[in-house]
Every structure is written in structure tokens, then in C-alpha cells.
Protein 1
Amino acid sequence: MSKEKIQRPELSRLTPYIPGKSIEEVGRELKLVNIIKLASNENPLGSSPRVQEAMAKESRNISLYPEQHSAILREALAQHLGVTADQLILGNGSDEIMLLVVEAFLNAGEEAIISRHTFSTYEFVTRLMSGVPILCGTPEEPSPLEEMAKRITSKTKLIWLCNPNNPTGTMISQKELEAFLAKVPPEVIVVIDEAYCEYVESGEYPNTLAFLHDQKLENVVILRTFSKIYGLAGLRVGYGIAHPKLIASLALVKLPFNINRLAQAAAIAALEDQEHAQKSFQMNQAGKTYLYREFEKLGLTYQPTQANFIYVQTPRGGDSVFMDLMKQGVIVRPLASFGIPKGIRITIGTAEQNQAFVKALEKISP
Ligand SMILES: *Cc1c(COP(=O)(O)O)cnc(C)c1O
């Protein structure tokens, strides 16, 4: 029997995730050295030095299974965030929590409201569980909350929000979010992905933890990650924050040992080094100011950002600008797969990386 006949029909409707090109890949293909990757919103400072120490120490124990529910890390996180441990679930990256959400809540045929211009995994996991994505928004307004609220029907089970939004760097404010949540019925789950919250500079950014607590909301999940400001993308640690009842549902579908020992030890150490996080934030602020100015000099339209990346419009199209920059040794992210063919997304790097990127940009006339 052919593979198409025996595999679930949903699988042929899935679009595989397209990651940023890796330094290794480009080095191999173009025989380049000194490649700069500004394509996946990784921390250009890397992780805290304390992480290396913690992992070296923990490496003695790798013949033993890890903590089943990451109890020690969960306790440390609970303290850091000011929530209780039963409001937290750890995932193999926050990607895994996205999967747990659909496994726990989404029945086949139910609808999920999603921005058309956001992180593609929301649509991927929705389709994986035979859910129906309802797509909204434009690159200028990726999360049109009023429209999203109007599209809630008796079939709606999930709403995915990314705040700040990847790839536009735009933000939903506290006021906007509160007004929106007031319109969402309690049987609809709202996922708010805050992967970049630590980089936000706006005072209008929602304090979702306080809001969840005050309103005793049982239908909202916040997603956060150690992949971005904490610099642990390669280790895969993310988490969900929600009412204990919602967390209990997610825990039912989680596989037992989803975070390995090295990753648990690393995340605890990363959390203890808030100075490193602060340094990363400040470097991002300085890089942002520099890049805004350079984009203005070059006459390029960019979207002011609340995250560690900037969405830039390129007159001649994202794919061709991406290819030309790559030949100059700088990897950025073309945004065609986010439904923005004219756009690129550039991760804010170190001062040297940003300068090298601008030099490359000047050479290629975007
Ligand atoms: C990078 C990113 C994540 C993080 O994913 P992990 O699986 O934790 O590495 C989540 N959401 C968005 C929108 C992101 O850009």
C-alpha cells in the first residue's frame, strides 16, 4: 500500500517548518568563513557562563533519568515569576507546549483563530490535530483583535496570540488585551506566546501574570522560553503558565521525561544569572537604536520593534535580498513563509555583527 494511503490525511496538509539557515549550511554551500547568523533571534551574547559550569557538573549524572516534571526548575521558575509551581509546565522548547495545548484541548473539526503573519507552528499543530485554522490580519496589523473576537463561533476552541509578534515585532497593549479577553467565552482557550517578553521596552505591555491572577482566568495559557534572552535555544527549554486546572490537563498528555538533565541544570543556572539577561537586554536596545538610524540613512522602511529582531521592507523582495546578503556572509530571514514576500527579518546582533550587516546591506542595494 502506498504511504499516502496509510498515513493520516491531515499530514498531506502540513507545511513543514522552515528554520533560519544555519552557519554550517551556508559555510558548506558557499565556501564562506566568518558567517554571521542573524536569522533565528538567538542571543548573540550566548548563554551565561554559569550555564557551562552547571552542565559540566550535571554531566556526571546523565546515566540517570531526569526529574519527571522538572520539579527543581519548576520551583525556581515559580519563585522568579511569583507564581506557584502548579501554574507551570516545562516543555522541550515552548514548541512542545504548543503541541500539548492542541493534544489536550483541540477536537477534530474545531476552529483555531490565528494571525496570518505569525509563527507558523500554531497553524502546524492545529492542522496536526485535524483542527481548522481561521486566519486573520495583515502585516501592518497582524493581530486584529476586534476582528478576531468577531470570528469566534460555537466551533472555536483556540485563539493563538503572539506578543510581541514574530516576525513584525509589534505589540498588543494591556488595554487591548483586556478588552479582547473580556469578549472571549470561558470555553475558548487563549494562548499568548510571550517568547520575546524580556526584550519589550514599552510600558503598555500587558502584565499577563498579574491579570491571570486577578481575574482567576482558567482559559489562558502564557508561553515563554529559555531559547531567546537566556540563550539556550540549542537545549530546548520552554514553559507554560496558566491556572492549575489548565496545567493539569496539559500534564496529562506530556511524555514523562521531556526535559533532559543538562537542560534542566542549564535553565536553573540561566535563571540565576539575571545580570546576563540584563546585559543582553541593554545590548539589544543599543543595537536597535543603531539599526533604526542606519535603515533611515538607507531609506528603508522598518517596523519599530519590541523584540530582538526587526522587520524591514525591501523594495526588490525578501528572497533576493536574503540571497545577496548570504553571499556577503550574513544570514537573515526572508519572510515569504510568513506571508510577507517583500520583507526580511533581521535579528539584532552584537555591535560588530550589526555593523557587518549594514556594510553588506549597503553593498547589495536592497
Ligand atoms: C523562538 C520562538 C519560540 C521559542 O520556541 P522554543 O521551542 O522555546 O525554542 C516560541 N514562539 C515564538 C513566536 C518564537 O519566535
Protein 2
Amino acid sequence: MKKRPTLALHGGERLRTKPFPQWPPVPTEGERAALLEVLDSGVWGSRDGTRGVEFARRFAERHGVRFGVTVANATLGLFAALRAAGVRRGDEVIIPPYTFVATATAVLLAGAVPVFADIDSDSMLISPESIARRVTPKTSAVMPVHLGGAVADVDAIRAVIPPHVKIIEDAAQALGAALRDRPAGSLGDLAVFSFQSSKNITAGEGGIIVTDDEELHEAAWSVANVGRRRGGGWYEHPRVGWNLRLTEFQSALLIGQLERLDESNARRTRATHHLAALFGEKVPGARILPDPDSTTSHGRYLAVIRFEPAVFGGVTTQSLSEMLRAEGIPASAGYPLLHRDRAIRDEALSISPDAAAQDCPVAEAVCPLTVWLPQNVLLADESDLADITDAFAKIQAALGHTEGDGQP
Ligand SMILES: *Cc1c(COP(=O)(O)O)cnc(C)c1O
């Protein structure tokens, strides 16, 4: 009988000691020079700067739309997009429960109530059928989330909602992604991307609102610029707005990062395919979630792994990811489900005392069966990726099948 390995978490030898590629990435000479140029120019804010305008133009163009408004981060970007879309206090905004908390808290910041639609079991993206069941006369927007870089089917969503309901893509994880060859960011009425440290292009913090609609662009720009009118007076504030602006330092960095996006995403895609093949060969009962057919370009923010607990000794995603981290693999158990979040629920009730709670049985069934790997892992060399499946195989050997694997 083969001896079971001792896991690093239980005092055994750590499988991998070498770190995965660092993120944020090592800056290029060009990025370094661009940053210093802003410093020396004395124009650090976006009012008189050219970098913010330049970056917004290039970013919008890359994502298939005419307009972009840079903002301090995507949380505030989602908030501003909701305001620009006409979402008002007490409205309902439909979102998935399996997303970063900011999707929900941006809705709350706009004074609206997040209503949770369930997800699809295979893609883990918000389900259009479930959205259709959540629409009420109070619904003013839907915010699909392109989780991990897989693109929510905005076409199918559009088909099940009333024409006046706006779609705001939470595209924070979908830089360079596409649905049926149309870029994420061009699918809804507005879309918001993030440049926070973990995202596939980053300036430490930052975000952008994009749209192809001139009026929505004006509105979003105004909300992010203290209610000003473009071309209007400095103290002219025709609408209520806030200062949500990005600095020129960040825009200068982002111009450089945007140029690297397609190449680095192509590298992540090759790594994902390689890793999927390794799982197929080496780890029964675990696999990389395949891209949905309609996602013709994937944002590659996460590699989502679905596992069968029974072949890992009945382990939970929390302990599996803890074991993987101890072996030197930076895995995560992923998001807690937001429809169960007490703080969000209390805030929603303070806005609308009769707000209904939603059941999301599919999310509850499949989310505990997933483990994530962050995007920087996918920038590693092919030879390094084998450590990931070796770590899964080691854990499997250590914990064994719960259903009769010949062990006593
Ligand atoms: C990162 C992220 C956000 C928030 O972005 P910030 O720039 O950190 O505010 C919102 N939604 C999703 C899905 C994200 O991944």
C-alpha cells in the first residue's frame, strides 16, 4: 500500500517554494518615464491634464465604444453609472449574488435596493431566466457581472427585461473580453472596469465608465465631476455630482498597461488551456471551468476550478484552498454569497422596509465546489503550472476518496 503524503498544512514538505509572477507587474521603462513626465509637468490632476483624456479615448476604442470617463475606482464608477442611468432612491437593481461586494454596495450607495438573481450552474454567471423572474415595476437597472472574465449573456438579458430598464455591465474583471465577438463594455448601456491592484491592468487603484451613448456619457462625466456641465462654468453645477476623478499619474501608467493587455491575456489563455489539459490528465474530480461558448474572448482574471468534494475526502473549499496555499499555490475559496450577507440585507431594509429576500439555490449548490487561482498565476511558465495540479494530486492522495478507495 502506498504511503499517504503529509500535507504542508500538517507539517509536511511544501510542494512549491518559488513565487508566481509578481502583480502589479514589473514596470516597463516607458511606464517609468511616463510617470516621471507627469511629475515634472506639474499637471497632476485631470482638469488640465492630457493623459486622462488620452487614456479614456484609447480604452473606449479598444472596448468598442465612443466614450470613457476615468474615475477613482470601479466602486464609485458603478455608483456614478447607476446615477447616470437614472437609478434613484428606492429603485431595484438586479445583480448576481456571486460577485465582489462592491457590486452590491454601489447599488446601496445610489440609494437603491440590490435584488439577487440566481446564477447558471455551468457558467456561474447571472441567469437571464432568473432575472426575468426578479423584474418588478421598481426595477430600473440590471448589473450583470462578467465573473473572472467570462462574459454574461447581455443579449439574452436584454431579451427578458422591459425596454426602459438599463443594463450596466460590471466589467471589472473583463478587460479585453468579448461576447460573440463584441467587446465587453459595448454590450450594455454603460459599463465599468476596474484598475485596482489585482486587476489585469492596474494603476494601484482606478476605474473607467464607458458607453456609446452621448447623453449617458455627459451624465456620467457630470456625476464624476461635481455635477458640472462639459464646457460649462467652473461653479456651474446643473446636476448633483461628486469629485470621483483619477489622477494624471494613474492615467499615464494605464496608457502603458493598456498596450500590454492583449499580449498578457493571450499568455493567460495559453496557460489556462495548458492547465485544463493537466487537470484532465492528473486530477480526477477537478477541472478548470470551461469558457462559455458565447465568450469568444475571455478576460482571464481568474481560473475557476470546480471540484468534487468526495474525491478530496469531503473537504470544503475553504480547507482545500488553505491546503493549496500551504503547498505554495495562491488559491482562494472565492466570494461569500451576497444574498446571505447580513450587512447588505440590513442596509437594503433601511432603504425599503418591505424589500424581499431572494433564494439563489444554484449559487448555494455550486459556489462551495469552486476554488480560484488569480490571474498572475496564469503568467507563469508552463513548467510552473504543473505544480498546481501536483498540489491537487498531493491533497487527493493525502485525503483520499470518501467512497471506498481501498484504504482502511
Ligand atoms: C474589483 C471589482 C470591483 C470594484 O473595483 P474597485 O476598483 O476595487 O472599486 C467591482 N466589481 C467587481 C466584480 C470587481 O472584481
Protein 3
Amino acid sequence: MIDFMDNMGIGRNVLSIARTAEEKIQNRFNEIDQNALLCQVKVLSAFKNQRVSDVHFVPCYGYGYDDAGRDTLDKVYSEVFGAQAALVRPNFISGTHALAVMLFSVLRPGDILLSATGKPYDTLEGVIGAGGAKSGSLADFGVGYKEAGLKNGKPDLEEIKKLLLENNNIKAVLIQRSKGYDWRESIGIDGMEQLISYIKSIKDVIVMADNCYGEFVQDREPTAVGADLMAGSLIKNPGGGLAPSGGYIAGKAEYVEMAADRLAAPGIGLECGANLGLVKPLYQGFFMAPHIVAQALKTAVFCGALMEEMGFEVCPLPNETRSDIIQAVKLGSPELIKAFCGGIQGASPVDSFVTPEPWEMPGYESQVIMAAGAFVQGASIEISADAPIRPPYVCYMQGGLTYESGKIAVMSAAQKVLNAQRSG
Ligand SMILES: *Cc1c(COP(=O)(O)O)cnc(C)c1O
């Protein structure tokens, strides 16, 4: 065993800390397995109810009229997510694209968007255009923006109420489930339910959720607890590591139709769109997703436990309830961030020989470093770690298609951090 680990550059010290860490999280693992079973039942039931069959995997081209594969996949998603309708398309370039389509589909000039969970994910800043009306942004189209900052890492209910009552034109409220690049708790599904009913009790607005990294982490999704719309990426949780690209929007039928019209063109939204032969991995990925998410969750919990054992602050704590697959580790310096990311990259199946360096990524505010050695470029359901290079120098780790490979990558990262501490 020790010799094998030598191949990955993992020493006895880290192995022994890892053993201690893993012993402490066995209960957590049982809960993760329980939840995966629940989610798997939901997914299987939907496949059964929608009578998924070979004919749905047939490629189609051109306009894509009457593509039963596309239409049935939409129904499978909507059933599992407790939504009236869904729009699942490989044509969504990314999560940001799906979120942008969701926002633009319901907001009109003169409307205001309210973020109820503080600053949204970095890539949405350009979409919203709050800092200056970037061409093509919501601001450029005359859509206003308000933000209720977080209070002690939680939604600030008083502030949300105040903004809702002060601004008549608030039409939609955005809730981000996951912590993104923030040091805060994610919004648990029960908390989400309470927050949505609180918002709706003050004003009849459209509630939209950024569900990126949240799918299958708990037993329900935002649309099942009152969200009118939600969006996410297929190269994160719901793609199960098999989707080659894409995103989804789910929610109330009338809004999903508006989103389809915005993605395509008014009038042809849900009717058209060739699947180009990409539909089968979307089905298979969704079938695998509850299990894959469980693997990623175990990797995250293990990472939290190991790094805590090594003396770092981690968020969430190993025994805290999770609502996304992200594990944040406060490393405290750019050097340790580079070391950690280098360790993840070095134990990835693809591009293990490259050294991640910080760069100006499109859509991000500060320089960002990303470790990603994935079969699908940028797929963060595969093991990955990233960090904006800004104080307090927090690194965000997520993914892991199998717990075994995730565990090895996390130990490799811990080893690199230990080496950097010794030499620094
Ligand atoms: C990943 C992510 C996004 C953006 O998704 P991309 O696919 O990277 O464009 C948006 N919001 C949250 C919370 C995310 O985690």
C-alpha cells in the first residue's frame, strides 16, 4: 500500500492523517449513501414513468422536429426535479449561459432583479452588468439590480423585506444555493423552502434559483420547494460525468417556454433543436448522477476532514449538512493555493503533467487558478480545485467521479501543501 502511494508522491505522514480523518466521517458516509438511494429511486421512477427506451437515444439533425429523445428527457428532468417543465439542452454552453437565458427570459426593461443571497457567482456579474452596463448585459437592456448582502453568512431577511417593499419594480429574486466563491454556508433545501415562502409572503415575485452544484445533494431541488425557475450546468452534478456539454432550466411551464424561446427564437423554442447525437449520454449521465454526486460528496467530506486534521479552517465542517459538493479550505497564501491545486492536478487522469497557474479567466473578477484534469474540459463534477487569487486565499475543491480517485487526489494535494509548508 505504502509503495503504491509512493507512486503518487504521497508519504506515510499524510496516509496516517488520512486514516484518522476517514475514521471520523463514517456516519457522514452512511447519510450520503442513504440520500443517494432516495435520489436514485426518484430518477429510476421517472425513467419508468416516461417509458425511456432505445428510440430516445437516436441522433437527430437539422431542425430537430419531433425529437422524442429531447422531449422525453425534458419530462424526466421535470419529474425528478418536481417541476412542471424542463429545458435540457446540449446547446447551453455552460451554467452561466443557462442562468443568463433564465434571467433574460423573464426580465424586461424597467424591471429590477433582486439577489437575496449577496453577490452572485463571479460570471454572473457580466450578465447582470451592475458595475457598468456592459454591452448586452441586463443593465444594458434597462433591467435594474439590487442586492441584499448576507448577514453572518445567511440571507438577511430584514434587508430582503426592506428592498422588496422599497422597490416596486422588483420582478424576480435570485437565490444562489451554493456558496460559489464565498466563505459561507450553502442554502440547505429546508432553508431554501423557508426563504422562498418568506419572499412570496412579502411580494408576488418570480423566484429563481442558481442550482449549480446542488443537484442530488439533498432529497429535493429548489423547484420542488417553491422556486419558479432554476438553472444548472450538465458538466456539473446532473450530467453524472457523462454529459459532454449542456445545461438545463426547469420550473413553471410558462417560464420554461419563455426560456426556450429566448435560447432559440420566439415561437420555435420547445419545438426545435437537433440533439446531434448527444442525447444518450445526457440520459445515462442523469441516471448515474445520484451515485456520482455521492462520490463527489464523500470526496468533499474527506477533504474537509483531512485538511482540518492538518490544522486548516474548512467550510463546511466535516460533520455539517451539505447542500452542494464544494469544500472550501482556507489555505491563507497564494503559495499554498498553488501547491494544493498542483496536487489535485497531479493526481488527475488527464493532463496530470501540467502545473496550474493563475490567469485572467473570462468572466472572473480577479485572477483565478484552476486544477482540472478532466475527460470533459472544465467538468467540475470530475475532481477539480479552483481559487480566486485574493485574500483570505480560500481554495474550493469539488467533484470526484469515484471516491477512490477523489481520495487519492485530495491526499496528493495535502502532501503538496505539507511540502510547501516545509520549504516555505
Ligand atoms: C459553476 C457555477 C456557475 C457557472 O457555471 P459555468 O458552467 O462555470 O458557467 C454559476 N453559479 C454557480 C453557483 C456555480 O457553481
Protein 4
Amino acid sequence: MQAFLYYFTSLLLATGVLCIYNPYRLPNVIRPKHYDLRILTHLNGRDQLHFEGRVKIDFQVQQPTNNITLHAKNLTIDDSQITLSAHNGLKTNIIKTELNKEKEFYIMHVAGELPESEQYELMIPFKAQLSENDTGYYWSSYNDSFTEKTHYLAATQFSPTFGRTAFPCFDEPHLRATFRVTLGYHRNYTGLSNTPVRNCEAHETLENYIWCEHEPLLPTSTYLVAYSVHNLSSVPSPPSDTIHNVRFRSWMQPKVVGESEFCVNFAPKTLSYLEQLFEYPFPLSKVDQLAMPTHKFSAMENWGLTTFKQSHFVHNDTEELQQAKESKAQTVAHEYAHQWFGNLVALNWWNDLWLKEGPSTYFAYLTLDALMPDWGSSQRLIGNDLAKFFQDDMINNSIAISRQVQDSKSVLEQFSPYVYKKGSLTMRMLHLLLGDEVFFLAIRNYLKRHAYGSVTQSELFGDMQQAADLKDALSPDIQLSTVMDSWTLQGGYPLVHVVRDYERGSVQLNQSLFLLTNKSKEQSESCWWIPLTFVIQQNANFNETQPQFWLKCPRAQQTQQLLKKPKSDEWIMLNPQVNSIYRVNYDERNWQLIIQTLNSSEHSNDIHVLNRAQLMDDLMALAWTNQQSYDLALSMLEYLPREQELLPWNTILNLLNNHGELLRGDQSSIFRAFMQKLVSPLYARCPKVNSVAARTKSSPLIALYRLAYSQACRYQLDDCIDQALSLGQFTEQIEEVPINFRDIMSCASIEHGIQEQFQSMLQRFKNSTIESRKTAWAKELGCSRNFSQLQEFLDYLLQSTDKTTKTYYIVVVNSALQRQNVALQTADHVLQHAKILNDKFSSREIKSLLLTIIGNSHSQLDELKLRQQLKGLDKFEKHLGAALHIRNINLNWLAQRSVNFIAALSKYI
Ligand SMILES: *[C@@H]1O[C@H](CO)[C@@H](O)[C@H](O)[C@H]1NC(C)=O
Ligand SMILES: *[C@@H]1O[C@H](CO)[C@@H](O)[C@H](O)[C@H]1NC(C)=O
Ligand SMILES: *[C@@H]1O[C@H](CO)[C@@H](O)[C@H](O)[C@H]1NC(C)=O
Ligand SMILES: *[C@@H]1O[C@H](CO)[C@@H](O)[C@H](O)[C@H]1NC(C)=O
Ligand SMILES: *[C@@H]1O[C@H](CO)[C@@H](O)[C@H](O)[C@H]1NC(C)=O
Ligand SMILES: *[C@@H]1O[C@H](CO)[C@@H](O)[C@H](O)[C@H]1NC(C)=O
Ligand SMILES: *[C@@H]1O[C@H](CO)[C@@H](O)[C@H](O)[C@H]1NC(C)=O
Ligand SMILES: *[C@@H]1O[C@H](CO)[C@@H](O)[C@H](O)[C@H]1NC(C)=O
Ligand SMILES: [Zn+2]
């Protein structure tokens, strides 16, 4: 996602240079074996939050060296106290120490040379303040709701490179070592680490302080080590059905205990499900789940001590959306899938981050389907991931999911939604390509073979190949690692062009990178190994996803006789279930045949739902780039009134909304009229909002109705607005709307309603301390069409001295930008306050704001002035180029394609 700078990664593929010297890596001369870590934590009020400790590291010298280089950052180290002793007890002198701030190295020069194979014990004392920014060893706090007393607590967030701010260590994922953690703290607190406490004893001098030693931890990457000192309440889970009867406890502040039920119960079920799926026992004896008031991410998979942001852990059905619950369940399943992917089998280096995030995301989807079959999650999640992927990657800035990363900053940036989603789609591709049996055989072999080791992507592909060979699942000329490298070592995706010979029953195929912009010479030559599976209309079977042929790389035009000859009046379709991530263009006659089937009431369901969504997605993208006409694309939408499933609706409405956001004036009115007509039959299926809850418990239906309601109100269907206005009149009434629809009704009534309603909601926002409520209200207030009202709210948020209040600014702004009413003024507000935002918000948040604000803006833009205005604001400057690039793409479309689009729409209104 942080594209641009890294575009050159595709060159790596071309030249085959995969190992680049990385000056930020530790010299590969010392191998840590064991850490003995002792840490005393002080939580004595806001100005006394600190820790001190010492680490003893047993290591082996791999190559003679005259220095010991490891990671340390922001730690105070008294180097006169460091000791280094050899196996035989002899001490070696440290003659000099130095800090390399840029590389975050702490270097100890020794007298003479440490000889190869010798073992040493290095002892380093250190101390530091507990971090304020939720990284490393950090503090957090909560207020007791009765006594209003503030309680402080401490916990770790080491991933990816913050372990070094908590203790000196060899902080690279492949340097696994065993750990023994001993925590010191006041008796009033509880101490947790990856393993259970073995025994406690009184502190030698501090009264009421204890030292508690934890059992040793299996060889682990440093980023997975975790500990915490806190006084939270604990909630036990029912016993888990795992081989070692893993014991689960969850920890949280007392006031949210009642709302922890879902995650407390769900977590052990996911662990045992995954254990059975992977056929490899979870090796630890306990798991603690820690719900932290603040957390840098949503959750972290530390071995045996999973941490969550509290708001991602607790759930209240009467207060929060069903989709929020599903997202929490997904997070839980994701973290537990990591216990195998990442924890048991580690990464060799962060370039292959997708190798733990991809499988964890994908197996979480499978877990949801297995444990919550009524939710129908995986199909919806995969459908959304596909839509997002195809959209993001056609902008000319896609990066490879496996790419070189160097310093800490680029390691952190690697954790982008892009890597998760494409990583997951890549795992899914392997699954559907190889079939259930081979895929799981390979996964189980991989876990067994590399348990407690570390891997690169070629190990995964190698194990897949071996399983495929064993079962004859791939044709012998196919080298899986070559195939998969073409998907993971370059960004973007191909368009496969299919031209049929209707007489012979053959097809002519070629591929090219699909982009919305012109391609460079290199880009025109890029290619993929593309699995080809054709479905033929007669007896169409979308379950058979294993490849019949391959489109090879380097590219060449290919003529292919199909396995079974299609009749000239039946369609053929590539890529059943969109098993691989490419687009397809057919000759027009084949498109027409497909559209006929969609339009015939008995047969539209013959086409798999993921393909129904993808066909529209592809055709709209082909029309955008003038490779097909908008007339053809829109004629496919004629079948929608009969479409019962959420996914195709969701995909097409998102796409059309994106088009609509670019339009102004008359074009915009025509578009709105079209959308009203398109959405009406979908809306007509929905019950009245107040009766919907009583009838509807089904998660897929709730999602479908939410889509229908939000789009109907967005395009101002009378009935939707009427319902909203009549409900919105009285605060009490809107509070009684079922939670899954309340935000939509509330937004519409704010948008079309009276002044007082805004004010009373604003009062409630200011008066409340419940995070989920405040978020919902902030979003609804952002629907206002009265900018002076909105501005007052935005200013209030930015001026607040409270850390959390400011975060709602982004929520409000995103909501306002989605509507055209006050988008311009809102955009101005953002740019005028860019400096404050740059300090306060993450690079990712700023990127998304900037892409919308600049990307969709039509008005004359003084680029020079804008650059001037944003000068020195690193996060804005970094993403400005990408935003201007998208703006160019959109302006081109407006100039060249919007007229055709509108002309095609006009036929339907
Ligand atoms: C420390 O030793 C390693 C391996 O011998 C060497 O590559 C590195 O340059 C040394 N570092 C310093 C600062 O001397
Ligand atoms: C660690 O960082 C904090 C905040 O950036 C700073 O105040 C403190 O002096 C630093 N400590 C050390 C030892 O570098
Ligand atoms: C967090 O604070 C630590 C020092 O306490 C600092 O080293 C680190 O760079 C900060 N990280 C971020 C993301 O601000
Ligand atoms: C707790 O209360 C104190 C004092 O009233 C306040 O300053 C602080 O922001 C509150 N903290 C939280 C996490 O609500
Ligand atoms: C520990 O708990 C006791 C009893 O609840 C209380 O009186 C005391 O102030 C607490 N001490 C600390 C340091 O939290
Ligand atoms: C959920 O929220 C409602 C309304 O705030 C509250 O009355 C209820 O007690 C909460 N449920 C739980 C389990 O805490
Ligand atoms: C395809 O698989 C689905 C789900 O496993 C099953 O319900 C369906 O009957 C299968 N269809 C065919 C044609 O085999
Ligand atoms: C704010 O909340 C308090 C306590 O919940 C309530 O008594 C008061 O009426 C509320 N004020 C407004 C303006 O809603
Ligand atoms: Zn993850």
C-alpha cells in the first residue's frame, strides 16, 4: 500500500536478485539460545511509571567476532555493569560500547576476539520509562466507575520491532530462543507472561513487592514475548477441547466483565478447531487474553498471552452492530491461527510477512464458517476482499506482498491491509488450485516440518509442491514456486483476454497487466503463471477449481482447445469462484451469452455468486478503460432485480457509488435517477425498519437489509426518508430502532431533518463515555448538510485536550466526505488543519483522507499552493503523490468516459 517508492520491486523479479544486502540486519555471527529476563515494574501514579531489569543472554558464536551487536532503543544502560562470561566461567572485558541510533543497534566491543562455537553468557542491566504510545513495554490506565480512582497498568506490544525498547535483544524473527521471565511488582497486582507462574518470593528490599518466576517458554521470536502487570478482573473460559486441555482466562477492567461473554467463549473454540484442522497440538498449557484499555493495533497474537484492544474484545448486542461482532470473532480467529502461522513456524524475515498474515486471515475465515455457519462469513469476506483488491491494484502503484524491507519503519509499514488481503487471497488460490486434500496435506507437513524453525515463502511452496507431486495434482511441467513467485513478488494483477473460435471450440488467450493508466514498457511485459479453469454453460460446475491449463510466463499468445467442446450458443467462463486473482475479458458474443443466462429467471443462479459479482466488477472496469462499452456493462445489471444475494449487490453498488462521487451537475442528477431505479426493487424487499429486528436474526439478511436501507436513503427514496424523519423526530424513538439499522435512520434524519436534532445528538455525544455509542453518533453527525453546524463540531473535536476525543474527527470527516452535501467544505477543513492532523493521526488515516479529498476533487487545484501548504507535514507529503495520481485517473475518466457512461445510464431512466 505504501506503494510508489517501492514500485521498483518488479525489477527484482526480472533480474532474479532476491537477496539484497540489508545494513539494518544484525551481523550474522552470534546466535542467541536463551534469555533470562528479570523486570521490576513501578506503577506509582502518573509520574512514576517505569521499569528496571536485567537480561542474561546465552549465545553461541557462529563466526569469530570482536563485537556483540544486538538491538536496544530508548533504554538506559549502565555499561560498566555489563558482564560477559564464557562457558568455563572466565570473564571477557567489554572495552567500549556504542549506540547506532539509526539502526537501533547497541554494540559492545570486546577485548580480542570471541572464538567460533564458544558459548557465552552476557548480562546487561537496563531501565526506562514505561512507554506512552502503546509500543514496547507501555502503560495504560482506566478509571474505576465507582470510586473514579485511576488505575495504571503495564503491558507489552513488541511486534514488530518494539521488543528492543523494552530489553536489549537480538530482535529479528528468525533468532528464536527460549525465555525465562521473572516479573517483580507490588502484591496488589497480577503479573502475566507467556507461561504460567512457577513460584513467587518476596522482593529482597522493597516491602510488599514480589518476584514471580514464570515457567520457561519454548524457542520463540522476540516479538512474541509478552508480559503485563495489572489489577484487572479475570474471567475463566469453559475448558478447551484441545489435546493439552489448554486453560483460558481473560482479563479486563471490572465494568466490562458483563460484555466479555462472546470472546471469552469463542476463543477456546477457535483454538481447538484450528488444532484439529492443522493436526498439530497447541504446545502451551494456558492462554491468557488481556483486554487493554489502549492498544496500538486491534490485537496481538503473543504466544500464550494474547492482547486485545478492549473495544475489540467486549461486545454488547444491544449497543453494537452484528457486523462488529463478526469482526471481533474474525480477529479472535486470526490471532489463534497465528499460534501456528508465525508462532510455531516463524518468519525468516519481515519481507515475507504475508506468510503469517495471509494464512491467519484465510484460516480465520474458514474458522468462522465452521463455528458460526449461520453467519455465512467467508463468502462475504472473500467477496469484499476480492472487490477491494481488484480496485486497489489497478492504480499504478501496487507493490509486491513479498518485498525487501529494511529499517523499523518499513517493517511496520509492511503491516498494511493490502498484505493481509492479498496474502489471504493467495492462500485461497493455493487451496482451490490444489484441492482440499493436497492443500491440507501440505499445510500439515509444513507445520510439522518447520515447527520451531523459521521459513521463507519458498518453504511453503516447496511443501505444497511435494504434496501435489505425491497426489499427482499438478501437471509435471508446472513448478509451483515459479508460479507463485509471479503472484507474490510483483504487484498488480493480469487481465486474461479470451477470444473464442465458435466453430472449432477453441479459445485464443493472452494476458496483460490491468491498469487504469498507461503502462511503461516494463509493465507491458510483466506476466503471471495463470491457472485456467473453464466452466461451460451445459452442466456448469463451479466447484471444480483445479486448473485444466496454464497461461505461461514469459507471455505468448496461446490457442487452447477446450477439454469439452462448447456449443456455439453456450457461454464459457474462466476462473470459477474467482479462485485466482485475475480479470477476464471475453469477446462480445460470449459476454452476451452470459448476460442472457443472468437475465433468465431460472438460470441466473447457475453462475456462482462470487462470479456474478466478479463479472460485473470486470465489465465495469473494462468499460472504464474503454475495452468494452458501458452499454454492455449496464445491460448486465438488468438481472439485478432478481438477485437475492448480498454480494453482487454490494459489489455493484460500491462501484457505482464510486462513479457517482465523481459526477457533478446534470450528470449527477441523471446518475441519481438511475440509482433510485436500481435500488428500488432491492429496497422493496425490506420490511419496515421497526419490524425488521423482530423478524430477522439472520446475519446475511441483516447485512442485505442494511445495504438496501443505506442506499435507499442515500438516493432519497421517499419511503426511506419518510421512515427516517418520522423516527428521528423524537430522541426516544430513534433509540428504539433496532441497533443494526439505527445509524442509517439516524443519519438520514440528521441529513434531512431539523436543526434541533443535530444539537441534541451533539449533547448526547459530549455527555457520553461509551466508545461505541460515541463513534456511532460521530458518524451520524457527519451526515449533516449544514456545514456551520458541522464545523462547530469538528473544531470542538480538534480543540479537545483529551486524547480519545480527537480520534472522532476522522470518523466525522469520513462520513461527511461520503456525501456530496458538504464534502468541499469538509475537505477544506482537513487541509486547513493539516498540521494538527499530521501530529495526531496515523499515516494510514491521513492517506485515506487525502485520497478521498484530492482524488475526487474536480475543482481547479493549485498544486503548487497545495504543496506549499503541506510542506513539512510528512504524512501528508508522503501520500500527496498517490492522491494526485488518482485525481488524474478520475479526471481522465470524466473527460473521456463519463459521457458514454451517462448516455448508457440514460436509457434506463
Ligand atoms: C561487529 O562485528 C561484525 C562481524 O564481525 C562486523 O561485521 C561489524 O562491522 C562489527 N561492528 C562494528 C561496529 O565494528
Ligand atoms: C526515551 O524516549 C522518551 C520519549 O521520546 C524520552 O523522553 C526519553 O528521554 C528517552 N530515554 C532514553 C533513555 O533515550
Ligand atoms: C514510541 O515511544 C518510544 C519511546 O518511548 C519511541 O522510541 C518510539 O519511536 C515511539 N513510537 C511511535 C510509533 O511513536
Ligand atoms: C480518569 O479520570 C481522570 C481524572 O478525572 C481524567 O483526567 C482521565 O482522563 C480519566 N481517564 C480515563 C481513561 O478515562
Ligand atoms: C494495595 O491494596 C491495599 C488494600 O486494597 C490498599 O490499601 C493499598 O493502598 C494498595 N497499595 C498500592 C500500592 O496499590
Ligand atoms: C448492554 O448495554 C445496555 C445499554 O447500555 C446495558 O443496559 C446492558 O447492561 C449491557 N449489557 C451487558 C451484558 O453489559
Ligand atoms: C458445489 O459445492 C457446494 C458446497 O460444497 C454444494 O452445495 C453444491 O451442491 C456443489 N455443486 C455441484 C454442482 O457439485
Ligand atoms: C448527561 O448525563 C447525565 C448522567 O447520565 C444526565 O443526568 C444528564 O441529563 C445528561 N445531560 C444531557 C444534556 O443529556
Ligand atoms: Zn495477524
